[in-house]
Input
Amino acid sequence: MTAEEFKTRFLIQQPDSLAGVPARGNERQAAVLIPLWQRPDKADGELELILTQRAGHLNAHPGQISFPGGKQDETDASMTATALREASEEIALPSSQVNILGQLPVHNTITGFAITPVVGLVTGPFTPTLDPGEVADCFSVPWSFLLDPVNRHLKTFKRRGKSMEICFIPWRDKFIWGATAAMIDQLCNQLGAAHPALK
Output
């Protein structure tokens, strides 16, 4: 899938009510950038999803696969501003190279965060520069791999007597799971739900 195809399908499926909706509730507010990149060094035009691996020394979720993102600062004008700032700090992705398409619904985690996923297309060449205090690795996964439902797995677990569905996505030597995998799954389902013929 190319960047233009993704943009068209995302905007068709994007509920108008989500545009600019802030996270709600008493949870700690955070935002992540879901950055999709049509790499200029690849002739096939295949769209890829940029992901990071959290540094192993972090107290929260060390070593887990994640999107660039973090807690909202008082100086951030919006959740989109939070996502762009964090992406710039963590992997040196300039905000000028991100074409924001919209948001997914707020994702509430069991750790007390309300995460706003911000979807954007990365334009032009980009070489990540990692903040070693936050990020151990940065890599990309072909969007066609993620869009194929056979590669996204759901398991039901019980926590404190309640059943929970956990999504996980194995990719090479990486294991994508938890909130990151859930947001990928949500975006894939959104793109394919109303247009099964385009899958």
